[in-house]
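Aim 2 progress update. The chain analyzed this quarter is reproduced below.
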Amino acid sequence: MIEAAGLSKSYGSTLAVDDLSFTVPSGQVTGFLGPNGSGKSTTMRLILGLDAPTAGRVRVNGKQYSSYGRPLFEVGALLESKAWHGGRTAYNHLMCLALSNGISRSRVEQVLDVVGLTSVARRRAGGFSLGMSQRLGIAAALLGDPPVLMLDEPVNGLDPDGVLWIRNLLKALAAEGRTVFLSSHLMSEMALTADRLVIIGRGRLITETSIEDFIRSGTGNFVRVRTPQPEQLTELLQSRGATVVRRPADSLHITGSSSDEVGELARAHDVTLLELSAQQQTLEERYMELTSESVDFRTAGGAHVPVPNTR
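Predicted structure tokens:
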């Protein structure tokens, strides 16, 4: 478990993390989301003791990370995809980490196999592609078989097979009871991998919730109904506090009532339904809705920017 309480970090006049409190429980994949510049990377560095907080504290399984004598046995982390000496082979990079932490040589072979790098283990890591570099970083994070894993953008550079592999790996590790803290900008992948979310903006907590509750709470969710008796169904729904908007072709858009409730109400009052469907926001849509006021870097909205003639 990771627990942050009142965590703040200033760099001169810049407040990167502002009174941030959240919990990352074991047994689940927790997604860490926020716009660029929101403080995600700084928060992860604070958890690992790479930066000292200006205020507040953070604990990993009840202790400060720097107090662990053999940290690779406690936390596996990937913050930079190429945090190694490019002249070393993948095998030697992992072996240096293993020997310095009292980890067996056989474990190096095991993690190389887990991440699919056995065939290139004797190649210099400096020549690795981004995807191979990510796999090597994940191997280093797994080396001590830790109960806590922290990964910053682990799917960057991975091909579709690699993305599926890391998704299944993280879910399997969480199912074993481990704590998995995952940062990513790929909303479609986060929707498939994460069980819960911690979302920050401008260094402050926006929300901490399960992914199901997060999507369900969006304003873009509604129930769509088509019926030859729209007036009768509208009156029934409004009497129960639902909001109904009439659409063309005798369709209704309903908020404040679930599809099950609408169906049961229609059945009880002999209202014929030609269509009954729940329309739900995607994770990306809900995320954009919630963080719209926390984005510091905006594009020109698709406007064409002419290329100057330099001839």
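The longest strand covers residues 14-24. Residues 160-175 form the longest helix (16 residues). These observations will guide the mutagenesis experiments scheduled for the next reporting period.
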